[in-house]
Write a structure and sequence with these properties.
- This protein is α/β, with parallel strands linked by helices and 309 residues long.
- It has 14 helices and eleven strands.
- It has helices spanning 4-9, 26-34, 48-61, 77-86, 103-108, 120-128, 150-160, 174-182, 192-195, 204-212, 235-245, 250-257, 260-267, 290-308, and strands at 15-17, 39-42, 66-71, 91-95, 112-117, 134-137, 143-144, 165-168, 187-190, 218-221, 229-232.
- The strands form two sheets. It has an eight-stranded parallel sheet.
- Strand 8, helix 8 (174-182) and strand 9 (187-190) form a beta-alpha-beta unit.
- Helix 8 crosses helix 14.
- The radius of gyration is 18 Å and the shape is globular.
- Bound molecules: ligand TUI.
- Ligand TUI binds at residues 21, 71, 73, 95-98, 116-118, 122, 137, 143-146, 229.
Length: 309
């Protein structure tokens, strides 16, 4: 399936991997790129030198293009923004903020810049600032989210900008990809399904929580403080939501959750840790290689879209 996004990025399939904090390291990024999608290393809250090392390790594993996601709330965002230029990275996605201040530096280095947005306003601003495409990310997504759903956000962003739009949030099979294309998207970003990939270094307990999740197991913490984060319900989210409803400050709650994503991803503490995942977790039922996932999703999407034309 050729689209403006596959052409822009030089990839075979219109699938990019979410730049998930702690999850999207070099094994996963290289595996997604090797399978014909665009793999991404998640900058998360990591220092620039850690990301430099990940980039070099990914380059040893694939000669295909891969990108880096710069998480803009990170204290190291300035650092990571420079490292991607120094390491000759060709594609950058950004999350959790406005990447405007890095745009000139990245464009001058020939980097394709793809901000992740959760609103039409930011999509338009990013197009004006020189973005090459945008990811329109619906509230079904895991992690830090906006308010609009994928079904409502994607067509509105498609109507508002001329650059290609990549749909994200709630997509984990060929039906979701076909639906996103019907809404006008030219590629999709997939996160949660890749968390359970064989090449993903996430703790087995985390993978099993996603594989066993039901449709209603998703919840959002931090809404009242303007920092909504979607994850799977557990003891941590119950405590967080209780304290949030009692009016505890954002700072106190941040203290409670500090480091809890790492605790779940690396140590497998899915009781006290934060198990970030999208609402589509309920549909994900097995571990597969990235190639198996991508081939299966593309075959299903292509068959559906052929019938729809
Ligand atoms: O960034 C994401 N998803 C993320 S980042 C992350 S790391 C984290 N961990 C704990 C707490 C908070 C973050 C986990 N998941 N997705 C992209 C995304 N960006 N979703 C929503 C937005 C967004 C929201 C507001 C982008 C811009 C924005 O405002 C921009 C402005 O005008 O400043």
């Amino acid at each position: 399936m050729k689209t403006r996004v596959t052409e822009l990025l030089g990839i075979e399939h219109p699938i990019i991997q979410g730049g998930m904090a702690w999850v999207a390291e070099y094994h996963l990024a290289a595996a997604v790129s090797e399978a014909g999608g665009l793999g991404l290393i998640g900058g998360a809250n990591a220092p620039g030198e850690v990301i430099r090392d990940y980039i070099r390790k990914a380059k040893e594993r694939t000669s295909k293009p891969f990108g880096v996601n710069v998480m803009l709330m990170s204290p190291y965002a300035d650092d990571v923004a420079k490292v991607v230029v120094e390491e000759g990275i060709k594609v950058v996605t950004t999350g959790a903020g406005n990447p405007g201040k890095y745009m000139d530096m990245w464009k001058a280095a020939g980097i394709k810049v793809i901000p992740v947005v959760a609103s039409v306003a930011l999509a338009k601003m990013m197009e004006k600032a020189g973005a090459d495409a945008v990811v329109a990310e619906g509230t079904e997504s895991g992690g830090h989210i906006g308010e609009a759903t994928t079904m409502t956000l994607v067509p509105q962003v498609v109507d508002a900008v001329n650059i290609p739009v990549i749909a994200a949030g709630g997509i984990a099979d060929g039906r979701g990809i076909a639906a996103a294309f019907m809404l006008g998207a030219e590629a999709v970003q997939i996160g949660t399904r890749f968390v359970v990939a064989k090449e993903s270094i996430v703790h087995e307990n985390y993978k099993q929580r996603i594989i066993k999740a039901k449709d209603i197991d998703s919840t959002v913490t931090g809404r009242s403080h303007g920092h909504p984060v979607r994850c799977l319900r557990n003891q941590m989210t119950r405590e967080y939501n209780k304290l949030e409803s009692e009016g505890k400050s954002f700072e106190e709650l941040e203290y409670l959750t500090l480091g809890t994503l790492r605790k779940a991803v690396q140590e497998g503490d899915v009781t006290h840790g934060t198990v970030m995942a999208g609402q589509i977790a309920g549909m994900i039922d097995k571990e597969q290689t990235c190639k198996e996932m991508i081939d299966e999703m593309m075959a299903q999407a292509e068959a559906l879209l052929k019938g729809a034309r």
